What does this fold into?
Amino acid sequence: MSNSHQRAKIAQLEQKARELQLNPTSRRELQETTLSFSNEFLDTIETLPAFNHEGFEEEAFPDGIFTEEGEELKSLLTYLDEKVHKSGINAASGKHLGFIPGGGVFSAALGDYLAAVYNRYAGMFFATPGAVKMENALLRWTGRLMGYTGDFAGNLASGGSIANLIAITTARTAKGIKGRDYESTVIYLSHQTHHCVLKDLRVAGLDECILRVIPFDERYRLRADALRAQVESDLKDGLRPFLIIGNAGTTDTGAIDPLAEMAEIAKANDIWFHVDGAYGGYFMLTEHGRKKMKGVQEADSIVVDPHKSLFLPFGLGIVLVKSAKEMLHAHDFQANYMQDAEKFNQVLSPAEVSPELTKHFRGMRMWLPLKLHGVAPFRAALDEKLELARYFYSRVAELGFETGPEPDLSVVLFRYLPSRPEEANQTNELMLKWIQEDGEIFISSTTIDGVYWLRAAILSFRTHLEEVDCFLEKLASLPDHFMS
Ligand SMILES: *Cc1c(COP(=O)(O)O)cnc(C)c1O
It folds into this structure.
Protein backbone atom coordinates (compact mmCIF):
# COMPACT_ATOMS: atom_id res chain seq x y z
CA MET A 1 0.00 0.00 0.00
CA SER A 2 1.37 3.43 -0.94
CA ASN A 3 1.89 5.99 1.73
CA SER A 4 -0.96 8.24 0.57
CA HIS A 5 -3.29 5.30 0.16
CA GLN A 6 -2.55 4.14 3.66
CA ARG A 7 -3.08 7.63 5.11
CA ALA A 8 -6.45 7.87 3.38
CA LYS A 9 -7.49 4.54 4.83
CA ILE A 10 -6.47 5.53 8.33
CA ALA A 11 -8.30 8.83 8.00
CA GLN A 12 -11.45 7.01 7.00
CA LEU A 13 -11.23 4.68 10.01
CA GLU A 14 -10.47 7.63 12.24
CA GLN A 15 -13.70 9.31 11.26
CA LYS A 16 -15.75 6.46 12.71
CA ALA A 17 -13.40 5.76 15.61
CA ARG A 18 -13.61 9.37 16.74
CA GLU A 19 -17.25 8.85 17.66
CA LEU A 20 -15.83 7.47 20.91
CA GLN A 21 -14.32 10.90 21.62
CA LEU A 22 -17.37 13.00 22.34
CA ASN A 23 -17.38 16.64 21.38
CA PRO A 24 -18.10 19.05 24.25
CA THR A 25 -21.72 19.61 23.21
CA SER A 26 -22.73 15.97 23.03
CA ARG A 27 -20.76 15.22 26.19
CA ARG A 28 -22.75 17.84 28.09
CA GLU A 29 -25.98 16.52 26.65
CA LEU A 30 -25.21 13.01 27.83
CA GLN A 31 -24.22 14.27 31.27
CA GLU A 32 -27.45 16.23 31.64
CA THR A 33 -29.61 13.35 30.49
CA THR A 34 -27.91 10.95 32.90
CA LEU A 35 -28.07 13.42 35.79
CA SER A 36 -31.74 14.17 35.36
CA PHE A 37 -32.49 10.45 35.10
CA SER A 38 -30.63 9.66 38.33
CA ASN A 39 -32.04 12.73 40.09
CA GLU A 40 -35.54 11.58 39.37
CA PHE A 41 -34.70 8.33 41.13
CA LEU A 42 -33.11 10.05 44.12
CA ASP A 43 -35.93 12.62 44.41
CA THR A 44 -38.56 9.89 44.67
CA ILE A 45 -36.66 7.13 46.43
CA GLU A 46 -38.74 7.42 49.65
CA THR A 47 -41.88 6.51 47.74
CA LEU A 48 -40.44 3.52 45.86
CA PRO A 49 -40.95 -0.05 47.06
CA ALA A 50 -37.94 -1.78 48.60
CA PHE A 51 -38.71 -4.98 46.73
CA ASN A 52 -40.52 -6.08 43.61
CA HIS A 53 -41.12 -9.81 43.34
CA GLU A 54 -42.25 -9.51 39.72
CA GLY A 55 -40.09 -9.84 36.65
CA PHE A 56 -38.17 -12.96 37.66
CA GLU A 57 -39.81 -15.31 35.19
CA GLU A 58 -39.70 -13.06 32.17
CA GLU A 59 -37.55 -13.70 29.14
CA ALA A 60 -33.78 -13.54 29.61
CA PHE A 61 -31.98 -10.25 29.07
CA PRO A 62 -32.22 -9.88 25.29
CA ASP A 63 -29.23 -11.28 23.42
CA GLY A 64 -27.80 -9.86 20.25
CA ILE A 65 -28.47 -6.35 21.50
CA PHE A 66 -25.17 -4.93 20.38
CA THR A 67 -25.58 -3.66 16.85
CA GLU A 68 -23.23 -1.70 14.59
CA GLU A 69 -25.20 1.49 15.07
CA GLY A 70 -25.63 3.15 18.46
CA GLU A 71 -28.93 4.21 20.04
CA GLU A 72 -30.31 7.25 21.85
CA LEU A 73 -29.29 7.56 25.52
CA LYS A 74 -32.85 8.45 26.59
CA SER A 75 -34.28 5.23 25.20
CA LEU A 76 -31.43 3.25 26.75
CA LEU A 77 -32.21 4.72 30.17
CA THR A 78 -35.87 3.80 29.78
CA TYR A 79 -34.72 0.31 28.86
CA LEU A 80 -32.56 0.22 32.00
CA ASP A 81 -35.55 1.12 34.14
CA GLU A 82 -37.59 -1.66 32.60
CA LYS A 83 -34.99 -4.41 32.45
CA VAL A 84 -32.86 -3.70 35.51
CA HIS A 85 -34.30 -1.25 38.02
CA LYS A 86 -37.83 -2.62 38.19
CA SER A 87 -37.36 -6.08 39.68
CA GLY A 88 -35.81 -7.46 42.82
CA ILE A 89 -34.30 -5.52 45.73
CA ASN A 90 -34.09 -1.74 45.63
CA ALA A 91 -30.75 -1.73 47.46
CA ALA A 92 -30.60 2.06 47.77
CA SER A 93 -33.91 2.19 49.65
CA GLY A 94 -34.00 2.96 53.38
CA LYS A 95 -36.73 0.33 53.62
CA HIS A 96 -34.27 -2.38 52.60
CA LEU A 97 -33.77 -4.29 55.85
CA GLY A 98 -32.76 -7.62 54.32
CA PHE A 99 -29.44 -9.50 54.22
CA ILE A 100 -26.83 -6.78 54.96
CA PRO A 101 -28.02 -3.55 53.33
CA GLY A 102 -25.44 -1.28 51.78
CA GLY A 103 -27.02 1.98 50.75
CA GLY A 104 -24.65 3.85 48.47
CA VAL A 105 -23.86 7.36 49.75
CA PHE A 106 -24.35 9.61 46.72
CA SER A 107 -21.04 11.47 46.84
CA ALA A 108 -19.27 8.14 46.25
CA ALA A 109 -20.89 8.10 42.80
CA LEU A 110 -19.16 11.40 42.07
CA GLY A 111 -15.89 9.83 43.17
CA ASP A 112 -16.54 6.96 40.77
CA TYR A 113 -17.30 9.41 38.02
CA LEU A 114 -14.05 11.26 38.52
CA ALA A 115 -12.08 8.03 38.82
CA ALA A 116 -13.47 6.83 35.50
CA VAL A 117 -13.05 10.15 33.70
CA TYR A 118 -9.40 10.51 34.68
CA ASN A 119 -8.84 6.76 34.54
CA ARG A 120 -5.65 6.99 36.61
CA TYR A 121 -3.87 3.68 37.00
CA ALA A 122 -4.28 2.89 40.68
CA GLY A 123 -2.41 -0.41 40.92
CA MET A 124 1.19 0.81 40.98
CA PHE A 125 2.89 3.71 42.74
CA PHE A 126 4.91 4.45 39.61
CA ALA A 127 1.78 5.05 37.53
CA THR A 128 -0.13 7.29 39.94
CA PRO A 129 1.69 7.93 43.21
CA GLY A 130 -1.23 10.05 44.43
CA ALA A 131 -3.79 7.29 43.92
CA VAL A 132 -1.66 4.76 45.78
CA LYS A 133 -0.98 7.22 48.61
CA MET A 134 -4.73 7.91 48.80
CA GLU A 135 -5.51 4.19 49.06
CA ASN A 136 -2.80 3.73 51.67
CA ALA A 137 -4.19 6.66 53.68
CA LEU A 138 -7.66 5.04 53.66
CA LEU A 139 -6.11 1.76 54.79
CA ARG A 140 -4.11 3.46 57.55
CA TRP A 141 -7.23 5.25 58.79
CA THR A 142 -9.23 2.00 58.83
CA GLY A 143 -6.36 0.05 60.39
CA ARG A 144 -5.89 2.57 63.20
CA LEU A 145 -9.63 2.51 63.77
CA MET A 146 -9.30 -1.25 64.31
CA GLY A 147 -6.53 -0.57 66.79
CA TYR A 148 -3.60 -1.54 64.58
CA THR A 149 -0.34 0.29 65.12
CA GLY A 150 3.08 -0.08 63.57
CA ASP A 151 3.90 -1.65 60.25
CA PHE A 152 0.60 -3.04 58.99
CA ALA A 153 -0.55 -3.16 55.38
CA GLY A 154 -3.79 -3.66 53.54
CA ASN A 155 -5.69 -3.61 50.30
CA LEU A 156 -8.84 -1.96 49.06
CA ALA A 157 -10.48 -4.87 47.26
CA SER A 158 -13.85 -5.21 45.58
CA GLY A 159 -15.63 -6.71 48.58
CA GLY A 160 -15.42 -8.89 51.66
CA SER A 161 -15.14 -12.16 49.76
CA ILE A 162 -11.97 -11.16 47.92
CA ALA A 163 -10.63 -9.39 51.01
CA ASN A 164 -11.06 -12.59 53.05
CA LEU A 165 -9.34 -14.57 50.30
CA ILE A 166 -6.31 -12.28 50.45
CA ALA A 167 -6.15 -12.73 54.23
CA ILE A 168 -6.42 -16.51 53.98
CA THR A 169 -3.71 -16.88 51.34
CA THR A 170 -1.47 -14.52 53.32
CA ALA A 171 -1.98 -16.70 56.39
CA ARG A 172 -1.10 -19.82 54.39
CA THR A 173 2.20 -18.35 53.17
CA ALA A 174 3.03 -16.79 56.54
CA LYS A 175 2.60 -20.11 58.34
CA GLY A 176 4.44 -22.02 55.60
CA ILE A 177 1.57 -24.40 54.91
CA LYS A 178 2.27 -26.52 51.83
CA GLY A 179 -0.03 -28.86 49.96
CA ARG A 180 1.51 -31.90 51.61
CA ASP A 181 0.63 -30.47 55.05
CA TYR A 182 -3.09 -30.06 54.40
CA GLU A 183 -4.08 -33.47 55.75
CA SER A 184 -2.86 -32.65 59.24
CA THR A 185 -3.53 -28.90 59.22
CA VAL A 186 -6.51 -27.60 61.20
CA ILE A 187 -8.71 -24.55 60.60
CA TYR A 188 -11.17 -23.38 63.27
CA LEU A 189 -14.34 -21.53 62.46
CA SER A 190 -17.85 -21.16 63.77
CA HIS A 191 -21.18 -22.40 62.48
CA GLN A 192 -21.88 -18.71 61.83
CA THR A 193 -18.80 -18.11 59.66
CA HIS A 194 -19.87 -16.45 56.41
CA HIS A 195 -20.11 -18.88 53.50
CA CYS A 196 -17.72 -16.73 51.45
CA VAL A 197 -14.94 -17.73 53.85
CA LEU A 198 -15.66 -21.37 53.11
CA LYS A 199 -15.66 -20.54 49.42
CA ASP A 200 -12.33 -18.74 49.85
CA LEU A 201 -10.83 -21.75 51.64
CA ARG A 202 -11.95 -23.85 48.71
CA VAL A 203 -10.51 -21.44 46.14
CA ALA A 204 -7.22 -21.53 48.06
CA GLY A 205 -7.34 -25.34 48.14
CA LEU A 206 -7.44 -25.20 51.93
CA ASP A 207 -10.76 -27.02 52.15
CA GLU A 208 -8.64 -30.16 52.16
CA CYS A 209 -7.49 -29.19 55.65
CA ILE A 210 -9.36 -30.38 58.73
CA LEU A 211 -12.18 -27.89 59.40
CA ARG A 212 -13.38 -27.67 63.00
CA VAL A 213 -16.76 -26.03 63.43
CA ILE A 214 -16.77 -24.75 67.01
CA PRO A 215 -20.16 -24.60 68.74
CA PHE A 216 -21.81 -21.29 69.65
CA ASP A 217 -23.36 -20.06 72.88
CA GLU A 218 -26.94 -18.85 73.46
CA ARG A 219 -26.10 -15.59 71.68
CA TYR A 220 -24.61 -17.32 68.62
CA ARG A 221 -21.05 -16.37 69.62
CA LEU A 222 -18.27 -18.89 69.21
CA ARG A 223 -17.53 -20.61 72.53
CA ALA A 224 -13.94 -19.87 73.49
CA ASP A 225 -13.83 -22.77 75.98
CA ALA A 226 -14.80 -25.21 73.21
CA LEU A 227 -12.18 -23.70 70.91
CA ARG A 228 -9.48 -24.04 73.56
CA ALA A 229 -10.40 -27.67 74.23
CA GLN A 230 -10.41 -28.49 70.50
CA VAL A 231 -6.98 -26.90 69.92
CA GLU A 232 -5.54 -28.80 72.89
CA SER A 233 -6.97 -32.09 71.71
CA ASP A 234 -5.70 -31.51 68.14
CA LEU A 235 -2.20 -30.77 69.44
CA LYS A 236 -2.29 -33.93 71.50
CA ASP A 237 -3.19 -35.85 68.35
CA GLY A 238 -0.15 -34.49 66.55
CA LEU A 239 -2.18 -32.21 64.26
CA ARG A 240 -1.18 -28.68 63.28
CA PRO A 241 -3.58 -25.90 64.32
CA PHE A 242 -3.11 -23.23 61.64
CA LEU A 243 -5.93 -20.71 61.43
CA ILE A 244 -8.71 -19.42 63.69
CA ILE A 245 -11.47 -17.39 62.05
CA GLY A 246 -13.53 -15.08 64.25
CA ASN A 247 -16.54 -12.91 63.48
CA ALA A 248 -16.91 -9.24 64.29
CA GLY A 249 -20.61 -9.22 63.46
CA THR A 250 -22.08 -12.33 61.89
CA THR A 251 -24.38 -11.92 58.92
CA ASP A 252 -27.14 -14.03 60.46
CA THR A 253 -27.44 -12.27 63.81
CA GLY A 254 -24.75 -9.61 64.11
CA ALA A 255 -23.05 -11.63 66.87
CA ILE A 256 -19.50 -10.74 67.86
CA ASP A 257 -17.27 -13.62 68.89
CA PRO A 258 -15.09 -13.38 72.04
CA LEU A 259 -12.22 -11.90 70.03
CA ALA A 260 -9.83 -11.22 72.93
CA GLU A 261 -10.03 -14.80 74.20
CA MET A 262 -9.70 -16.21 70.71
CA ALA A 263 -6.63 -14.04 70.10
CA GLU A 264 -5.09 -15.34 73.29
CA ILE A 265 -5.64 -18.97 72.26
CA ALA A 266 -4.16 -18.22 68.84
CA LYS A 267 -1.11 -16.46 70.25
CA ALA A 268 -0.38 -19.17 72.80
CA ASN A 269 -0.37 -21.81 70.07
CA ASP A 270 1.23 -19.95 67.17
CA ILE A 271 -2.01 -19.93 65.18
CA TRP A 272 -2.97 -17.21 62.65
CA PHE A 273 -5.99 -15.30 63.93
CA HIS A 274 -8.27 -13.79 61.28
CA VAL A 275 -11.31 -11.64 62.04
CA ASP A 276 -14.12 -11.24 59.51
CA GLY A 277 -15.66 -7.86 60.23
CA ALA A 278 -17.12 -7.38 56.76
CA TYR A 279 -20.43 -6.31 58.28
CA GLY A 280 -19.47 -5.09 61.75
CA GLY A 281 -16.07 -3.50 61.23
CA TYR A 282 -16.90 0.20 60.97
CA PHE A 283 -18.99 0.05 64.14
CA MET A 284 -15.53 0.62 65.66
CA LEU A 285 -16.38 4.27 64.99
CA THR A 286 -18.84 4.02 67.89
CA GLU A 287 -18.15 3.56 71.58
CA HIS A 288 -20.53 0.60 71.70
CA GLY A 289 -18.68 -1.07 68.82
CA ARG A 290 -15.28 -0.55 70.42
CA LYS A 291 -16.51 -2.13 73.64
CA LYS A 292 -18.03 -5.11 71.83
CA MET A 293 -15.06 -5.73 69.54
CA LYS A 294 -12.42 -5.59 72.23
CA GLY A 295 -9.44 -7.67 71.14
CA VAL A 296 -9.90 -7.15 67.40
CA GLN A 297 -6.55 -5.36 67.30
CA GLU A 298 -4.86 -8.64 68.28
CA ALA A 299 -5.91 -10.28 65.00
CA ASP A 300 -3.22 -11.08 62.41
CA SER A 301 -5.65 -10.03 59.71
CA ILE A 302 -9.01 -8.24 59.59
CA VAL A 303 -11.64 -7.71 56.90
CA VAL A 304 -13.96 -4.68 56.91
CA ASP A 305 -16.41 -3.74 54.14
CA PRO A 306 -16.88 -0.03 53.47
CA HIS A 307 -19.82 -1.03 51.26
CA LYS A 308 -21.58 -2.30 54.36
CA SER A 309 -21.00 -0.40 57.60
CA LEU A 310 -19.62 2.71 55.89
CA PHE A 311 -22.73 2.98 53.66
CA LEU A 312 -20.74 3.24 50.41
CA PRO A 313 -21.88 1.69 47.11
CA PHE A 314 -21.12 -1.98 46.39
CA GLY A 315 -17.55 -2.74 45.41
CA LEU A 316 -15.44 -1.94 48.48
CA GLY A 317 -13.88 -4.46 50.86
CA ILE A 318 -10.77 -3.87 52.94
CA VAL A 319 -8.27 -6.44 54.16
CA LEU A 320 -5.72 -5.45 56.76
CA VAL A 321 -2.69 -7.55 57.67
CA LYS A 322 -0.79 -6.78 60.84
CA SER A 323 2.56 -7.60 59.25
CA ALA A 324 3.16 -5.73 55.99
CA LYS A 325 6.08 -8.07 55.33
CA GLU A 326 3.89 -11.18 55.39
CA MET A 327 1.34 -9.61 53.07
CA LEU A 328 4.03 -8.59 50.59
CA HIS A 329 5.70 -11.97 50.81
CA ALA A 330 2.44 -13.81 50.01
CA HIS A 331 1.98 -11.82 46.79
CA ASP A 332 5.56 -11.60 45.65
CA PHE A 333 5.96 -11.35 41.89
CA GLN A 334 8.47 -10.47 39.24
CA ALA A 335 7.88 -9.65 35.61
CA ASN A 336 10.34 -8.31 33.07
CA TYR A 337 7.82 -5.85 31.62
CA MET A 338 7.37 -4.33 35.10
CA GLN A 339 11.01 -3.28 35.41
CA ASP A 340 10.25 0.46 35.09
CA ALA A 341 7.65 0.32 37.83
CA GLU A 342 9.77 -1.72 40.24
CA LYS A 343 12.36 1.02 40.45
CA PHE A 344 9.78 3.11 42.27
CA ASN A 345 8.75 0.66 44.95
CA GLN A 346 9.58 2.81 47.98
CA VAL A 347 5.82 2.85 48.71
CA LEU A 348 3.80 -0.37 48.89
CA SER A 349 1.55 -0.61 45.83
CA PRO A 350 -1.83 -2.40 45.74
CA ALA A 351 -0.50 -4.75 43.04
CA GLU A 352 2.21 -5.97 45.43
CA VAL A 353 -0.22 -7.14 48.09
CA SER A 354 -3.21 -8.48 46.16
CA PRO A 355 -4.01 -10.64 43.12
CA GLU A 356 -5.03 -7.54 41.13
CA LEU A 357 -2.69 -5.65 38.81
CA THR A 358 -4.77 -3.13 36.90
CA LYS A 359 -7.37 -1.98 39.38
CA HIS A 360 -10.33 0.30 39.59
CA PHE A 361 -9.31 3.57 41.25
CA ARG A 362 -11.79 2.69 43.96
CA GLY A 363 -10.09 4.80 46.60
CA MET A 364 -11.84 7.84 45.10
CA ARG A 365 -15.32 6.57 45.98
CA MET A 366 -14.32 6.21 49.62
CA TRP A 367 -12.01 9.19 49.98
CA LEU A 368 -14.39 11.76 48.52
CA PRO A 369 -17.35 11.01 50.85
CA LEU A 370 -15.11 10.89 53.94
CA LYS A 371 -13.42 14.18 53.08
CA LEU A 372 -16.57 15.92 51.85
CA HIS A 373 -18.88 15.04 54.74
CA GLY A 374 -16.31 14.44 57.48
CA VAL A 375 -16.39 11.38 59.73
CA ALA A 376 -19.03 12.71 62.17
CA PRO A 377 -22.15 11.93 60.07
CA PHE A 378 -20.91 8.37 59.48
CA ARG A 379 -20.37 7.88 63.21
CA ALA A 380 -23.79 9.38 64.01
CA ALA A 381 -25.45 7.17 61.41
CA LEU A 382 -23.87 4.06 62.96
CA ASP A 383 -24.96 5.05 66.48
CA GLU A 384 -28.42 5.77 65.06
CA LYS A 385 -28.59 2.25 63.52
CA LEU A 386 -27.59 0.67 66.84
CA GLU A 387 -30.31 2.61 68.66
CA LEU A 388 -32.87 1.84 65.95
CA ALA A 389 -32.09 -1.86 66.31
CA ARG A 390 -32.65 -1.67 70.09
CA TYR A 391 -35.86 0.28 69.48
CA PHE A 392 -37.11 -2.29 66.98
CA TYR A 393 -36.10 -5.14 69.30
CA SER A 394 -38.33 -3.78 72.11
CA ARG A 395 -41.26 -2.70 69.94
CA VAL A 396 -41.48 -5.95 67.97
CA ALA A 397 -41.65 -7.86 71.26
CA GLU A 398 -44.51 -5.58 72.35
CA LEU A 399 -46.33 -6.57 69.16
CA GLY A 400 -46.28 -10.16 70.40
CA PHE A 401 -43.31 -11.52 68.49
CA GLU A 402 -40.66 -13.71 70.04
CA THR A 403 -37.21 -12.12 69.72
CA GLY A 404 -33.78 -13.65 69.41
CA PRO A 405 -30.93 -12.52 71.68
CA GLU A 406 -30.45 -8.83 72.33
CA PRO A 407 -28.58 -7.57 69.26
CA ASP A 408 -24.81 -7.05 69.52
CA LEU A 409 -25.03 -4.69 66.54
CA SER A 410 -27.92 -3.86 64.20
CA VAL A 411 -29.45 -7.20 63.18
CA VAL A 412 -32.60 -8.28 65.02
CA LEU A 413 -33.99 -11.82 64.91
CA PHE A 414 -37.70 -12.26 65.56
CA ARG A 415 -40.50 -14.68 64.78
CA TYR A 416 -44.14 -15.24 65.57
CA LEU A 417 -44.93 -18.18 67.81
CA PRO A 418 -48.36 -19.53 66.86
CA SER A 419 -50.56 -21.39 69.37
CA ARG A 420 -49.33 -24.61 67.77
CA PRO A 421 -45.55 -24.19 68.08
CA GLU A 422 -44.87 -27.00 65.61
CA GLU A 423 -46.26 -24.69 62.91
CA ALA A 424 -43.89 -21.85 63.77
CA ASN A 425 -41.47 -22.27 60.86
CA GLN A 426 -44.25 -22.53 58.32
CA THR A 427 -46.15 -19.54 59.73
CA ASN A 428 -43.08 -17.32 59.63
CA GLU A 429 -42.20 -18.45 56.13
CA LEU A 430 -45.67 -17.41 55.00
CA MET A 431 -45.28 -14.09 56.80
CA LEU A 432 -42.03 -13.44 54.97
CA LYS A 433 -43.71 -14.24 51.68
CA TRP A 434 -46.51 -11.80 52.51
CA ILE A 435 -44.02 -9.05 53.43
CA GLN A 436 -41.97 -9.63 50.28
CA GLU A 437 -45.03 -9.64 48.04
CA ASP A 438 -46.23 -6.43 49.65
CA GLY A 439 -42.80 -5.05 48.80
CA GLU A 440 -42.85 -1.71 50.62
CA ILE A 441 -40.32 -3.09 53.10
CA PHE A 442 -37.79 -5.78 52.32
CA ILE A 443 -36.52 -8.24 54.93
CA SER A 444 -34.93 -11.67 54.67
CA SER A 445 -34.86 -14.74 56.89
CA THR A 446 -32.47 -17.36 58.23
CA THR A 447 -32.61 -20.78 59.82
CA ILE A 448 -30.42 -21.57 62.82
CA ASP A 449 -30.55 -24.97 64.53
CA GLY A 450 -33.76 -25.75 62.67
CA VAL A 451 -35.49 -22.55 63.80
CA TYR A 452 -36.74 -20.22 61.08
CA TRP A 453 -36.19 -16.56 62.00
CA LEU A 454 -37.20 -13.34 60.36
CA ARG A 455 -34.36 -10.81 60.32
CA ALA A 456 -34.38 -7.03 60.31
CA ALA A 457 -30.92 -5.75 59.37
CA ILE A 458 -30.79 -2.02 59.99
CA LEU A 459 -27.80 -0.63 58.13
CA SER A 460 -28.85 1.63 55.29
CA PHE A 461 -27.91 5.28 55.79
CA ARG A 462 -31.43 6.02 54.57
CA THR A 463 -33.07 3.97 57.36
CA HIS A 464 -34.39 6.22 60.12
CA LEU A 465 -37.22 6.15 62.68
CA GLU A 466 -39.79 6.69 59.93
CA GLU A 467 -38.75 3.55 58.03
CA VAL A 468 -38.56 1.41 61.17
CA ASP A 469 -41.98 2.66 62.32
CA CYS A 470 -43.34 1.91 58.88
CA PHE A 471 -42.13 -1.68 59.24
CA LEU A 472 -43.59 -2.01 62.74
CA GLU A 473 -46.93 -0.77 61.42
CA LYS A 474 -46.70 -3.31 58.63
CA LEU A 475 -46.13 -6.09 61.16
CA ALA A 476 -49.02 -4.82 63.29
CA SER A 477 -51.25 -4.97 60.22
CA LEU A 478 -50.40 -8.56 59.24
CA PRO A 479 -53.60 -10.40 58.29
CA ASP A 480 -55.31 -12.14 61.23
CA HIS A 481 -54.90 -15.63 59.84
CA PHE A 482 -51.15 -15.46 60.59
CA MET A 483 -51.73 -14.64 64.24
CA SER A 484 -53.38 -17.86 65.31
C1 LIG B 1 -21.13 -9.70 53.46
C2 LIG B 1 -20.21 -10.51 54.25
C3 LIG B 1 -19.12 -11.14 53.66
C4 LIG B 1 -18.91 -11.15 52.17
O1 LIG B 1 -18.55 -9.89 51.72
P1 LIG B 1 -18.91 -9.38 50.25
O2 LIG B 1 -18.54 -7.95 50.32
O3 LIG B 1 -20.38 -9.61 50.07
O4 LIG B 1 -18.10 -10.15 49.29
C5 LIG B 1 -18.24 -11.80 54.48
N1 LIG B 1 -18.43 -11.85 55.80
C6 LIG B 1 -19.48 -11.27 56.40
C7 LIG B 1 -19.62 -11.37 57.89
C8 LIG B 1 -20.41 -10.56 55.65
O5 LIG B 1 -21.46 -9.98 56.25
